[in-house]
């Protein structure tokens, strides 16, 4: 089996409502690039990458000479062809490599008639647990999706998600409002769901003093971990030394050099593995093995996935014996998807691991065309800007908080 072609299509898939985070917002849609790698036996493998547009599509097309004639079984050779570690100092193709690796694993699985998790050593679980992943948000354009700003609204949103999807772990994406206010919101979740687990993630925008204050204030709660309260391995180490609450990161342990540093000088207790950030599923499996050896916890990070990347997260979660924390996913905030059969479904807070060949998903061509047209109509958006606060941008550590007393108007 040899690769003959690569195609890339950028899509915009609507969200139920615009989601706020510490650096800006998701502006009511996810912009993703769908990658198709075709082989000489007629099979097509699927990949996915965050962001997109003409430049991303051109960048993938430019890799055609690297891929034509390549055997998709030869994944280590593929890694050096596309993302040689020294050449990548200049071209930074890690996320592109990930999308193409997804597609090659999909091709190999389809060719052999086995699911990707069988190629990775075999599954140890049939479904993967997920956290609720709560965001402060603007009202939805449909007029039916309310804002989430107050503690009461946050609890109501979490309760709705718990009733619909069965979540028993709740993650609050913070760093939007002043830390003391978000602490009130977090405590409200703990009071409303006393038997459930909690985690808080302000995306590293708290100062060291604020991070320590927040960590101390939640020590008595039922926490999974405190994720990226401050920026950097050294900042995290200083917080970790002063709290019994486990610390997690997806920002500063995203490659093997950083993982080695964290093993030698422990700054975090839990590493959130992202199939895109790490350059593919196989890299995440390798990193999870290192974490297991040195007794670091692991979870699965979400970078704003559609069904293709969610499938990679499910196959990853299926094969990790040491996945002891529920995975993250933005997925339930989507109003649609590009895969046949519609979005994956949650049951008791879990999603079943696909059992079909390859990744186990198939493109819905009509949906791809619809969302590609929506992208052409709306274009991209700046991830690090908030459409409700023109001219605003965050600092790290931040001091430019949104006003929690001001209702969030529909955009």
Automatic annotation (TrEMBL):
Its EC number is 4.2.1.40. SUPFAM superfamilies: Enolase C-terminal domain-like, Enolase N-terminal domain-like. This is glucarate dehydratase. Residues 151-246 form the Mandelate racemase/muconate lactonizing enzyme C-terminal domain. GO terms for molecular function: glucarate dehydratase activity. The lineage of its organism: Bacteria, Bacillati, Actinomycetota, Actinomycetes, Streptosporangiales. It holds the Pfam family MR_MLE_N. It catalyses: D-glucarate = 5-dehydro-4-deoxy-D-glucarate + H2O. Pathway: Carbohydrate acid metabolism; D-glucarate degradation; 2,5-dioxopentanoate from D-glucarate: step 1/2. SMART domains: MR_MLE.
């Amino acid at each position: 089996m040899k690769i003959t072609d690569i195609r890339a299509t950028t899509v915009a898939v609507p969200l139920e409502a615009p989601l706020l985070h510490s650096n800006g917002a998701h502006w009511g849609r996810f912009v993703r690039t769908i990658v198709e790698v075709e082989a000489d036996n007629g099979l097509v493998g699927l990949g996915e990458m965050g962001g997109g547009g003409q430049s991303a599509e051109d960048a993938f097309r430019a890799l055609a000479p690297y891929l034509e004639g390549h055997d998709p079984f030869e994944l280590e050779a593929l890694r050096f062809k596309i993302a040689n570690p020294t050449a990548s100092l200049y071209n930074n193709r890690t996320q592109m490599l990930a999308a193409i690796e997804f597609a090659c694993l999909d091709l190999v699985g389809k060719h052999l008639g086995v699911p990707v998790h069988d190629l990775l050593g075999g599954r140890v679980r049939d479904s993967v647990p997920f956290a609720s992943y709560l965001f402060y948000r603007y009202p939805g354009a449909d007029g039916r999706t309310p804002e989430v700003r107050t503690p009461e609204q946050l609890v109501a949103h979490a309760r709705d998600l718990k009733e619909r999807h069965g979540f028993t772990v709740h993650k609050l994406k913070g760093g939007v409002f002043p830390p003391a206010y978000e602490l009130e919101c977090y405590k409200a979740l703990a009071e409303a769901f006393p038997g459930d687990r909690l985690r808080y993630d302000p995306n590293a925008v708290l100062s060291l003093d604020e991070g320590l204050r927040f960590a101390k204030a939640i020590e008595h709660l039922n926490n999974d971990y405190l994720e990226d309260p401050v920026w950097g391995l050294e900042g995290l180490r200083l917080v970790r030394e002063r709290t019994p609450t486990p610390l997690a990161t997806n920002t500063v342990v995203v490659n093997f050099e950083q993982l080695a540093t964290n093993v030698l000088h422990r700054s975090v207790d839990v590493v959130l593995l992202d199939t895109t950030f790490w350059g593919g599923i196989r890299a995440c499996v390798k990193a999870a093995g290192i974490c297991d050896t040195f007794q670091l916890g692991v979870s699965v990070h979400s970078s704003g996935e559609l069904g293709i990347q969610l499938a990679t997260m499910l196959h990853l979660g299926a094969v990790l014996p040491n996945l002891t924390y529920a995975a993250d996913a933005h997925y339930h905030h989507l109003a649609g998807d590009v895969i046949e059969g519609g979005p994956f479904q949650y049951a008791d807070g879990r999603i079943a691991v696909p059992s079909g060949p390859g990744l186990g998903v198939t493109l819905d061509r009509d949906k791809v065309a619809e969302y590609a047209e929506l992208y052409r109509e709306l274009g991209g958006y700046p991830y690090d800007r908030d459409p409700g606060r023109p001219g605003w941008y965050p600092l790290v550590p931040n001091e430019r908080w949104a006003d929690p007393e001001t209702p969030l108007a529909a955009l």
